[in-house]
Structure formats: structure tokens, C-alpha cells
Amino acid sequence: MSGEMKAGKQDYIFKVILIGDGSVGKTSLVRRYMEGKFGADYLPTIGSQIYTKKVVGKGETKITLVVWDISGQPAFTAIRPEYYKGAAAILLVYDLTRSETFQHLDGWLSETKRYSPKPEVVLIGNKSDLEARRRIPHRAGEEYASKIRAPFLETSAKDGSNVAEAFATLADKLVMTIPSTGTRK
Predict the structure, then answer these.
(1) 11-39 pLDDT per residue, tens
(2) Which of 36, 79, 104, 182 would suit a FRET pair with 60, their CA atoms being 20 to 30 Å apart?
(3) What contacts 179, CB < 8 A, 6 or more positions away?
(4) Furthest-apart CA pair in the chain: how many Å?
(5) Is residue 81 within 8 Å of residue 114, measured between CB atoms?
(6) Cα separation of 95 and 104, whole Å?
């Protein structure tokens, strides 16, 4: 099964990628989840950064998430396919305050699925703390998530809202792909 490796009794390792336009907050989401930190300074990701975290999913199944934070900058378009290969799951991220990041979601999914055909997906509308600057209605996110058959959460890497829940939702979806605990769609 692509993206999943058995590490030991009830231990599974899954490759997870974060995708979306540059400056939607992918790195901030990962840092908030992995380190409990938020940095207000924006530094674009060069290529990718890799993080790991051991978690317990549904049914007390132990899994390790190997999270690849992939650059959304156009300059890295040519090398991104190498990072997509073998991904078991995607956190598809857009910025609630920038309409174009929502409009680019289909392109991100299409690009990714050429190299990882059946990943589990969770849709994330990030920067919910900037409600006064919101450009994408909550309902639009729900409708898009329904279209792609993915859970949807609005998050804030800045204040931590729903960040752990987004990763937990993804972990539970991954556990359901393990033959002994569930079935893959």
C-alpha cells in the first residue's frame, strides 16, 4: 500500500504532505502541531521540510506521521513531484483571507494525484483568527470538501484553533486504511 510501512506490532508509518499556495500557513500549521509554536515572521519553505510525530489513532493504533511541508512557491513546481511520491495523505491548505488560494485547490489536487493516486485528504481553511479579513465563506469550504469527499476544518496556526484536530482527523482516516482496522475506499 502506497505511503504506509509497517514498523512493528501495531506501529505504522505514513507519509503525509501539506500542499497549497505559498504563504497559506503550511509551515506554521506544522510547527504549531509538532512544536506548539507560532512564528509571525514569514520565511518561504525552500523545497521541503520533514517532521515526524508518533500518534495514537482510532482503536489505539500507534502510527508515525512523517509530515512533508512542501513549498508552494512557483519556483519549486518542477521538483515537487518527487515529494509527492508515496504520500498516503494530504493536508490541502488554503488561506481564508486570499481567494486565489481557494481557486487553486483543484490544481494542487490534480498535480498531487498524478504521483500519489489515492491519498486520504483533509481540507484546511487556515487563518481563521483573521475573521475581519475573511474572503472565503465557511460554506464554500464545506461545499468543496463535499465535492472532493474530504473532512473540512478551519484552523488558526496563530492561536492553535483546530490544528491538533486537523492532524487527528487525518490520523484517524489513515488508520481506517490499515487492512486490520478498516478498509480503504
Answers:
(1) 899 999 999 999 999 999 999 999 998 87
(2) 36
(3) none
(4) 48
(5) yes
(6) 11
